[in-house]
Amino acid sequence: MPSPSAVSRPALRHVLTHLVTPLLMCLGMGIAYLAAFHAPAPHHLKVAVVGAAPQGQVLAQTLKDRAGDGLDVTTLPDADTARQRLLDRDLVAAYLPDAGTPTLLVATAGSETSATAAEKVFTQVAAHQGRPLAVRELTPLPAGDPTGQGLFFLLVALSIGSYGSVAVLGAAGAALPMRVRALLGLGVALLVGLIGTALAGPVFHLVEHGLPAVWAMSCLYAAGIVAIGTALHAFLGRWTTLTMMALFVMLNFTSSGGVFEPALQNGFFGSLHAFWNGAGFLEGVRDHVYFGGRAGFGGHLATLFAWLAAGVVLLLLAARHERRRTAAAAPVPELAEEEEIEEAVGV
User: Fold this and answer.
1) What are the residues facing 235 on neighbouring strands?
2) In this structure, are residues 290 and 139 in contact, taking their beta carbons and an 8 Å threshold?
3) What is the distance between the alpha carbons of residues 215 and 39, in angstroms, rounded to a whole number?
4) Can you tell me the distance from the alpha carbon of 202 to that of 217, in angstroms, rounded to the nearest whole number?
5) Which of 109, 126, 249, 344 could form a disulfide linkage to 133, CB 3.0–4.6 angstroms apart?
6) What is the SS3 assignment for 17?
7) pLDDT tens, residue order, the chain (347 aa)
């Protein structure tokens, strides 16, 4: 009979090996979130001073000199041009100098934190001139989402529903053919998108119009994650969860623009924002809901389709990988026949 120590060592080694995954998750989450959010500061934050008068030119140059790389300051001829640039999301804020009450035009729906950062800058400018600053909002937000950050939490819900389903499809569905798992994943994506859209619309009133398009983008986003995760499970096994967390939480949430847009982050996460799927979803929904679908909406849709296409390619590769692995594990026909003959004659 084996001793207790002989029995416990393999079990203990098994547990310790599996504890590596949550510890790596803790380390990765800490590094990603703290690196992305711990010290937000303007970095080429795009603002404008409105007015063709020499005073406007002088003010813009003064802001450039004092802010350095923090602000990207331009001058615009009139308020109508400033409004257009704001609604096209080319600017964060536009300052209208006035002898009575200077005004700051903002589009908070693009990024509440960026608008707040710009407001702080121009509040000081107006105070230096001895006048109070008036802030004019161009994109009024719904009562259910006064900060405009509710869509970020919709992104979180969709992501968790999507990559959480991957564990089920990969483990419980391992015996199913890859095409069946892919179809189940598509069904999951449609349901995840429906749940998210219902929460954003009729339940919490984050979105007051355009819900069919929000559902379509939610499904597209979820389908990309489920497809990639289902395929990766064929190659990575139990390391799939850690990989999915890295791709769709650690790097995804931090680069989505939901908390801080790239102009308030370091260059690494700002660069991810240009092509990561979470940013594509969040900015695409913002463009559709608040900016009439004109502020780079097509590019964000293309990002979501690109991630889904990558998932489809990975599914095809995973299916071929599983077929080869099954073929390699199957007994050679000739050897199987010889074994049956030997068993029959009692050899």
Assistant:
1) none
2) yes
3) 34
4) 17
5) 126
6) helix
7) 555 555 578 888 888 888 888 899 899 999 999 999 988 999 899 999 998 778 888 888 999 888 888 999 999 999 999 999 999 999 999 999 986 889 999 999 999 999 999 999 999 999 888 889 999 999 988 888 988 889 999 999 999 999 999 988 988 888 899 999 999 999 999 999 999 999 999 999 999 999 999 999 999 999 999 999 999 999 998 899 999 999 999 999 999 999 999 999 988 998 999 999 999 999 999 999 999 887 689 999 999 999 999 999 999 999 999 999 888 876 655 545 555 545 544 54
46's tokens:
């795009």
Tokens matching residue 70: 């923090």
Token pair belonging to 42: 């303007």
The long-range contacts involving 115-120, CB below 8 angstroms and separated by at least 24 positions, are 117/40, 117/42, 117/45, 117/92, 117/264, 118/45, 118/47, 118/92, 118/93, 119/93
Structure tokens at 340: 């049956």
